[in-house]
Design goal:
- Residues 82-92 have a biased composition (Basic and acidic residues).
- This protein has helices at residues 30-34, 42-84, 92-106, 112-118, 140-147, 149-155, 174-184, 187-190, 207-216, 248-258, 262-269; strands spanning 3-5, 14-16, 167-170, 229-232, 274-277.
- With 278 residues, the protein is mainly alpha-helical.
- The strands form 2 sheets. It has a 3-stranded parallel beta sheet with strand order 3-4-5, with no helix packed on it.
- It has 11 helices and 5 strands.
- The longest helix has 43 residues, at 42-84.
Length: 278
């Protein structure tokens, strides 16, 4: 039953809605009118309607919040999926372009011709696209064994010349280097007669301390006469979502102190040293 009131207490001011129905279908009598809700009952009814509307509004708001959270979750999952695919998974020609862009950031004052002269050719970059596993330290040994068989063979052989490393593994964090060192000591890589594994922290030790450490590990001093591979740890992402080349200090050191060295760059271009992005 729907009754609308226009105001006042007199019966003459009572207005019936067109949709008004009685339970029996008979005409409305005075007793029924007298039993009808009075003006005094209206506030309670209005409050009930307002409460229902408020609950409905809150319910719609909760549904909207759920939708927003679901969309946000999908975006986050998509971003994480993209991040899980390392730049290192790309083919050599794309990696060469990527390294060229990073090199430009390191040598901001160099001309186009100078940068082109320093460019690392894609023929000097290892093709590791056959590796479909994760590029994490837990899989580093398998990664080397399956995608870099020549490096695996060389790591299992003891170097004839002290201070002539076969592999340089470059990472952007000291703790990361310590973890990599532990993995590279795996007997599956080095066998029983493999060479020494030494870790160097460029920003945490003085040069004299490095030299002293190398002597203790029978490495003595470094030369590139036996160097066949340089591995760049680009898959590792730090707490700020940065890889090896996203950090200006490490990016500049890699290109200027390692890859930019005349002898190293010449050996890379000649194919004597292969670059590996892990």
């Amino acid at each position: 039953m729907i009754i609308s009131l226009t105001g006042g207490d007199d019966l003459d001011e009572l207005v019936l809605d067109d949709n008004y129905l009685t339970l029996s279908g008979d005409e409305l009598d005075v007793d029924e009118v007298e039993d009808s809700p009075s003006q005094e009952d209206l506030p309670a009814s209005t409050e009930t309607i307002d409460a229902s509307a408020h609950r409905a509004k809150k319910r719609k708001q909760r549904e909207k919040n759920k939708e927003r959270k679901a969309k946000r979750r999908k975006l986050t999952e998509s971003a994480e999926l993209e991040e899980s695919h390392s730049i290192a998974e790309r083919p050599p020609h794309e990696l060469a372009d990527y390294l060229s862009k990073m090199q430009t950031k390191a040598f901001i004052k160099s001309t186009t011709l100078e940068l082109e002269d320093m460019r690392i050719p894609d023929s000097s970059i290892a093709d590791t696209t056959s590796w479909t596993g994760l590029r994490t330290l837990d899989h580093l040994s398998d990664f080397i064994i399956k995608t870099l068989p020549n490096l695996h063979t060389r790591l299992s052989q003891k170097s004839k010349n002290p201070g002539s490393p076969t592999l340089l593994f470059i990472a952007g964090a000291a703790l990361r280097v310590a973890d990599v060192t532990r993995i590279l000591k795996d007997k599956r890589l080095r066998g029983e007669k493999g060479g020494e594994v030494a870790k160097l922290f460029a920003r945490h030790f003085r040069l004299t301390e490095h030299c002293s450490y190398l002597k203790r590990t029978k490495v003595d001093a470094l030369t590139i006469s036996a160097l066949s591979h340089i591995m760049l740890d680009v898959s590792f992402i730090d707490a700020k979502k940065r890889n090896l080349f996203d950090i200006p200090e490490t990016r500049d050191q890699v290109f200027k102190a390692v890859l930019g060295g005349p002898e190293v760059l010449e050996a890379i271009k000649a194919g004597k040293i292969q670059l590996v992005l892990f």
